[in-house]
Amino acid sequence: MTPGASTLFSPRGSEQEIEEGEIFAPKFDANGLIVCVVTDVQTDALLMVAHMNAQALERTVSTGEAWFYSRSRRALWKKGETSGNVLHVTEMRVDCDQDVLWLRVRQSAAGACHTGRRSCFYRAVVHKGPDRPLVLAFRDDERVFDPAEVYK
Amino acid sequence: MTPGASTLFSPRGSEQEIEEGEIFAPKFDANGLIVCVVTDVQTDALLMVAHMNAQALERTVSTGEAWFYSRSRRALWKKGETSGNVLHVTEMRVDCDQDVLWLRVRQSAAGACHTGRRSCFYRAVVHKGPDRPLVLAFRDDERVFDPAEVYK
């Protein structure tokens, strides 16, 4: 944990303190990460789910813009750095046991997903019957930007 | 992975297949778990975030009711088994890289959180200024059931 981060977060207390208290004591997992759910503050739409490490959380708090940690790239990552769709954090919430964060954001542009869709959740899981593998059906999958143009 | 589960899920393919295909190939983490975001299908409210293992996902698909895996209790867990608030899955979605599930549910009763609140996200994270630790402010924290009565 960075020095800056350590002044922002408090150590974990009792179950009562964690669930009913006013002390922010986030639980990072064995890899130092915490799950973040991101929704649009105007529409309540679920946009994406990503991870933060302590440094990403610290930068998010200090800048008001969403920073994450990319597990595949093993790097700190500012959402919108390439695409321009920076996420402005209107409110951050934490769940009962403080191991999940919820960011309510105002988007700079449409299209939170790197595939060009509004949301990362553009496919439903469909069950075709017993002993049949689950398949995906596209829903709300219109592209609002061209990823080949944006990420070239 | 259980025999039943292995017929439901497909192996991971190329990035193109995973992101743009119709094959359901969920990515379980090193512990065999996948993150699940749960929202109310009528209000779009974020209720909770939990994990599933392959068996929990299989049972959710076969029963239409949400099953999870409790990391603290190391056990399969049917949501609502004690409280009565079973979650009926109206739609399941998966994100672009297929490592997060989204369950849109109809609740049997109000109060998805074990603390008695409608949602697990009843506290906002508040920044009081540089070098001041983050604190929590209660929001939408009315109790809709008494956990001492329900979980006695």
Cα-atom radius of gyration of chain A: 17 Å
| Oligomeric state of shown chains | homodimer
Strand order of the largest sheet of chain A: 2-1-6-5
What would the average pLDDT of chain A be, to the nearest integer?
94
Approximately what portion of the residues of chain A adopt beta-strand conformation?
25-35%
The pair of chains with the biggest contact is: A-B, 50 and 50 residues
Q: What do you see in this structure?
A:
With 152 residues, the first copy, chain A, is an alpha+beta fold. In chain A, β1 and β2 form a beta hairpin. The radius of gyration of chain A is 17 Å and the shape is globular. Chain A contains four helices and eight strands. The two termini of chain A are 34 Å apart. At the A-B interface, β1, β2, β5, β6 and β7 of A face β1, β2, β5, β6 and β7 of B. β7 of chain A pairs antiparallel with β5 of chain B.
Which characteristics define this entry?
four-stranded mixed beta sheet, 4 helices, two-stranded antiparallel ribbon, alpha+beta, homodimer, 152 residues
Brief overview:
Chain A is of the alpha+beta class and 152 residues long. In chain A, 17% of the residues lie in helices and 30% in strands.
Which helices and strands, and how do they pair?
The structure is a homodimer of 152-residue chains.
Chain A: H1 3-8, H2 15-20, E1 34-40, E2 46-52, H3 54-63, E3 67-70, E4 75-78, E5 87-94, E6 100-107, E7 123-126, E8 135-138, H4 147-150
